[in-house]
Amino acid sequence: MDKFLLLLLLLGPLPLVFLQAQALVCTVCRSFKEGHCLRGKDNCTANSVSSCRTRDFFFFSDRDGWLYDHTELDCAMFCLSSNLFYEQNKISSYCCKNQDFCNRYQGKLMIKNIY
Ligand SMILES: *[C@@H]1O[C@H](CO)[C@@H](O)[C@H](O)[C@H]1NC(C)=O
Q1: What is the total count of domains within the chain?
Q2: What region holds the UPAR/Ly6 domain (predicted)?
Q3: How far is the CA of 108 from the CAs of 5, 12, 38, 46, 60, in angstroms?
Q4: Is residue 74 part of a domain?
Q5: What is the pLDDT of residues 37-87, one digit of tens each?
């Protein structure tokens, strides 16, 4: 057999193993509120350009200031931890890829960190 072909056959599965080792599993929830995932509970897989993401959604009230509404958990490409302001809304994003399910809902900690 051609030496090059043989080498290709031997090395073929290697990149696959590498990709699998890199895969990171994250929590998905379309609407998380009061300690429960109300809608769209699932898992997603992040790769070298994506991360696990937690987003807290707030809205502004003249009387009470920023009020927490709900949280969304997913995987995102080129994720950056940040606060995004849009009219009367604020979206606080937290990104991580240090371990599987690292974006799992963090409870009140997440909310306290905002102020
Ligand atoms: C998500 O992954 C966890 C741990 O691997 C598993 O127990 C759970 O069934 C998965 N959930 C879904 C919706 O795939």
Answers
A1: 1
A2: 22-104
A3: 57, 47, 17, 25, 19
A4: yes
A5: 999 999 999 999 999 999 999 999 999 999 999 999 999 999 998 999 999
Tell which one of 28, 43, 100 to mutate to probe ligand 1, the residue whose CB is within 8 A of the most ligand atoms.
Answer: 43
List the domain range (segments joined by +) for residue 64: 23-115
CA distances from 111 to 44, 75, 92, 99 (A): 24, 20, 9, 21
Answer yes or no: is the C-beta of 6 below 6 A from any ligand 1 atom: no
Integer-rounded Cα Rg, in Å, for the chain is 20
| Whether the predicted model's global pTM rises above the 0.70 cut | yes
Contact 94, 83 (CB under 8 A): no
The Cα 85–Cα 115 span in angstroms is 14
